[in-house]
Design goal:
two-stranded antiparallel ribbon, 16-stranded antiparallel β-barrel, signal, Porin, mainly beta, transmembrane beta strand, 2 helices, 378 residues, Porin_dom_sf, Gram-neg_bact_OMP
Length: 378
């Protein structure tokens, strides 16, 4: 739903004045369905439920706006709220605009924005993992930070030049609301006077896109602080990540392209958790993935992927194979049926579903997830 607003029109309760034209776009997605997950607890019980976090995509609504300032400059903003279609509650720890809340300027040299926003981890992987934030998107099932890679108190820059895109973010305190940015990561409220490293986060990205092909690289580093935890999502407990000198680094290299109508994407994600305390082990993991998407007809799309993760420190490994079919009823409405199977190594207890937690199997046990759902966008 789009509507045009003449510049200065009553948004702030003041009289209309002559200035550049501005626009605001209201948009959203509602996505839900019914899910079955096998071996959803340590005793091997299954569950049938309506998931609360995501289906093909997380449910959200938002506002985007721009106002031309002349000379190729414009003011821009975004407010985006994530919600649980199952119960109508807010996601992202109950934040009103937990997905995005930023304002800035777009210039001929790139965009500079301020507020709560995505780190470069999100922008680097967006085109290579074709399942993205799907409930069975393997990169996110193995690391739930990836679809939640946002930070508070953030300055972000992103600009494109001759096919190259440069991006960087700097957060003075990645979780100022104290509600957590991803499951199992605790909280990290900052900034803290006298300690510039506490809860700090920064990221950088370089990517190149041309004629439907592209490659990307990104680096994302979080510092520890009071209340922070590190979670490897492999069934081992979260551990303290409270020292400002502790770092949680995610690196990635990926690419995407096409062969005719067939789209392909794949890459590597490396995670390096290093702590100051000798009592807390350093943990390294590596994830690899390959995804594909094919339009069988203009209305029917089939896509899927294979994902594999290795954590040498915990001696855990997992593999997810996912397949999804989507039928477009219209430009805005689709129905889908999808499934995935997870193979856990002997000591691993990864979970196949991002549907809202509560489906962790016993170590070494595989899991099947199947979901039928409907998605509508506006």
């Amino acid at each position: 739903m789009k509507f045009r607003i003449a510049a200065g029109l009553a948004l702030s309760g003041v009289s209309t004045i002559a200035c550049a034209q501005s626009s605001v776009t209201l948009y959203g997605i509602l996505d839900t369905g019914i899910e079955y997950v096998s071996h959803a607890n340590a005793t091997g019980d299954s569950v049938v439920r309506m998931p609360g976090i995501t289906g093909e995509m997380p449910s959200r609504w938002g506002l985007r706006g721009t106002e031309g300032l002349g000379g190729g400059w414009s003011a821009i903003f975004a407010l985006e709220s994530g919600f649980n279609t199952r119960s109508g509650t807010l996601n992202q720890g109950g934040r009103l605009f937990g997905r995005q809340a930023w304002v800035g300027v777009n210039t001929p040299y790139g965009a500079l924005t301020f507020g709560r926003q995505y780190t470069m981890t999100f922008w680097a992987i967006a085109d290579a993992d074709l399942l993205g934030p799907d409930i069975y998107g393997g990169t996110a099932s193995f690391d739930q930070y990836l679809p939640s890679s946002r930070s508070d108190n953030t300055i972000a820059y992103k600009g494109s030049y001759a096919g190259f895109t440069l991006g960087a973010t700097w957060s003075f305190g990645r979780d100022s609301a104290g509600t957590g940015n991803s499951p199992g990561q605790g909280t990290c409220v900052g900034p803290v006077p006298g300690s510039s490293q506490t809860c700090r986060e920064w990221s950088a990205m370089l990517r190149y896109d041309r004629n439907g092909y592209g490659v990307a690289a990104a680096y994302d580093q979080q510092h520890g602080g009071p209340g922070a935890l590190a979670n490897l999502y492999d069934g081992t407990p979260s551990f303290a990540f409270a020292n400002p000198g502790d770092t949680d680094v995610r690196m990635q290299l990926n690419g995407y392209g096409h062969i005719g109508a067939l789209r392909l994407g794949g890459g590597w994600l490396g995670r390096r958790v290093n702590t100051v305390s000798a009592a807390t082990p350093n943990v390294h993991s590596d994830q690899f993935y390959l995804t594909a998407s094919y339009p069988v007809t203009p209305a029917l799309v089939v896509d899927g992927g294979v994902y594999h993760i290795i954590n040498d420190r915990d001696d855990t490994r997992g593999t997810i194979a996912a397949l999804r079919t989507t039928y477009l009823l219209s430009k805005r409405t689709a129905v889908y049926l999808q499934g995935a199977y997870l193979w856990n190594s002997e000591k691993a207890a990864y979970t196949v579903s991002q549907g809202g937690g509560g489906t962790t199997p016993a170590p070494g046990i595989g899991q099947l997830g199947v979901m039928a759902g409907v998605r509508h966008s506006f």
